[in-house]
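Researcher: Go.
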Amino acid sequence: MRIIKIENQSGKSKNIFNSYGSTTTTLTKIKNIVVALDGSKSSSNALDYAIYLARQNQTTLFGIYVIPMFSINYKKPSSALAKMFVDNGKKVLMEAKIRCAKNGVLFKEKMANGNEGFMVISYAKKRKASIIVMGSRGRSNVRELFLGSVSHYVVHKSPIPVLVVK
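Model: Structure:
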């Protein structure tokens, strides 16, 4: 039997029992939330959940948009393709910032370049995130067939809990 201790806001713990193992885990209040954004519908849904969690826990929401590693440096885009990715990232992050502001949530954005899954996990670690929220499907189903799903990678590689939203 597994005992999970859930700590409420006053610091008191409540035990929850389940049959998944014999380890004790302590879950504390969510302090920082990282949401992975890419402009897709499921990414937008993930942002909705992340905003809800941030409001409930009165915490900051950190949004990350990752430009795939095959693109050029996002700080100085030199090709039309790279510029398209950078412009889309700026648009997605600005829309997220506006949605957060309308809901009274502090939002801090990050644009990065590289392997999407790895960058999401790295950013979450850097921000000492309590949870990563992300969509189940990204921009391209074809891309997932060849490279594997970013959400699948993050779920299996992240030491931080991950909430995947459809």
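Model: The beta strands are 2-7, 13-18, 24-27, 32-37, 60-68, 107-114, 131-135, 162-165.
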